[in-house]
Amino acid sequence: MHSFGYRANALLTFAVTILALMCTIGSLSDNLNTPSPSAQIEILNINWFQKQPHGNDEVSLTLNITADLQSLFTWNTKQLFIFVAAEYETPKNALNQVSLWDAIIPAKEFAKFSIHTSNKYRFIDQGHSLRGKEFNLTLHWHVMPKTGKMFANKIVMSGYRLPEDYR
Amino acid sequence: MGWIGESIESVKSMKIRDSLFQFITLGMIVSSALIIWKGLMCITGSESPVVVVLSESMEPGFQRGDILFLQMSKDPIRTGEIVVFNIQGRDIPIVHRVIEVHEQRQSGEVRILTKGDNNDVDDRMLYAQGQFWLKQEHIMGRAVGFLPYVGWATIIMTEKPIIKYILIGALGLLVITSKD
């Protein structure tokens, strides 16, 4: 009853239970945070806009991304993964989402930024319907926790339009 | 030494009824583990509700040895989600982030492109020859939760099977010789 093995087992079980409980509480405590992030994206320039040889439209943009995501950080936050995606409809597809740029924010002090960049990933349509196309730019964020549940949300910015002609 | 001697002694002095009881206890442990696993499969709707991260392609978010909890819901897949997918001709599923989604108007089918956060290029190189997009059927689940380090036990046991056998043996011996 009071052998070494029995005591070791009881101690280990207790330690693991406490650890699991603390991880759960840590993860649940994320719900207490009510973040108020803000973001603004400006298209500074259409660098070029053309139809690829095999028929898909491709466009290159220069963006200015300003955001304040500091309120998303809690003590259980390991990092923030953020990305900007273009979202639009075409006759063929009910929804197209194309990532243009992404970044990892490792700590709170880097969460307020303003960056001037061209798109990191290629903005290619499945087809050739980008001319004069209205689209949304969406800033998505993924909160990656030290442990527990992952959170994600986004800010949608609408009213962007591509030019009528290739250039 | 006294502990080992005690154990051997208890094995020797075991009666049939006792050994049957031990056998049932062992069976209970195994079947409750199975129930938990199958129950998780039902709740999450995913074939493998828990996966261990094996590669560095999602660093620094997910490191080797971290555990991910998967869910397979009817919600459509969108950019930014971390999905686990199977590629034809590969045994090991891959955990990467969705960077492009095209949802067809008529059929409702999706075309998905993924990329590892720590990789420089998208995953077209990893897909099967001539495959440009993932479809819904390739997706095994999306990651919803995260637990660090726990997966190391699995990695060690897969890479050094001897440790697995020693562990199973020791546990079995402990169950057989335990008396209370």
UniProtKB/TrEMBL annotation, chain A:
Signal peptide: 1-29
UniProt-listed InterPro entries: SPC3
GO cellular component: signal peptidase complex
GO biological process, alphabetically ordered: protein targeting to ER; signal peptide processing
A Pfam short name: SPC22
Transmembrane segments: none
Keyword field contains Cytoplasm: no
Membrane topology: Single-pass type II membrane protein
Keywords of the record: Endoplasmic reticulum, Membrane, Signal, Signal-anchor, Transmembrane, Transmembrane helix
Record's keyword annotation contains Transmembrane: yes
Compartments in which it is found: Endoplasmic reticulum membrane
Organism superkingdom: Eukaryota
Protein purpose: Essential component of the signal peptidase complex (SPC) which catalyzes the cleavage of N-terminal signal sequences from nascent proteins as they are translocated into the lumen of the endoplasmic reticulum. Essential for the SPC catalytic activity, possibly by stabilizing and positioning the active center of the complex close to the lumenal surface.
Cross-referenced PANTHER family: MICROSOMAL SIGNAL PEPTIDASE 23 KD SUBUNIT SPC22/23 (PTHR12804), SIGNAL PEPTIDASE COMPLEX SUBUNIT 3B (PTHR12804:SF13)
Family the entry assigns: Belongs to the SPCS3 family.
Protein's name in the database: Signal peptidase complex subunit 3
UniProt organism field: Citrus sinensis
Taxonomic classification: Eukaryota, Viridiplantae, Streptophyta, Embryophyta, Tracheophyta
Automatic annotation (TrEMBL), chain B:
Keyword Aminoacyl-tRNA synthetase included in the entry's annotation: no
EC number: 3.4.21.89
A GO CC term assigned to this protein in UniProt: signal peptidase complex
Transmembrane is among the record's keywords: yes
InterPro entries: LexA/Signal_pep-like_sf, Peptidase_S24_S26A/B/C, Peptidase_S26, Peptidase_S26B
One MF term in the entry's GO annotations: peptidase activity
Transmembrane spans: 20-37
Domain of life: Eukaryota
Membrane topology reported for the UniProt record: Single-pass type II membrane protein
Keywords recorded for this protein, A-Z: Hydrolase, Membrane, Protease, Signal-anchor, Transmembrane, Transmembrane helix
Main location group: endoplasmic reticulum
Stated role: Catalytic component of the signal peptidase complex (SPC) which catalyzes the cleavage of N-terminal signal sequences from nascent proteins as they are translocated into the lumen of the endoplasmic reticulum. Specifically cleaves N-terminal signal peptides that contain a hydrophobic alpha-helix (h-region) shorter than 18-20 amino acids.
Stated name of the protein: Signal peptidase complex catalytic subunit SEC11
The species this protein was found in: Citrus sinensis (Sweet orange)
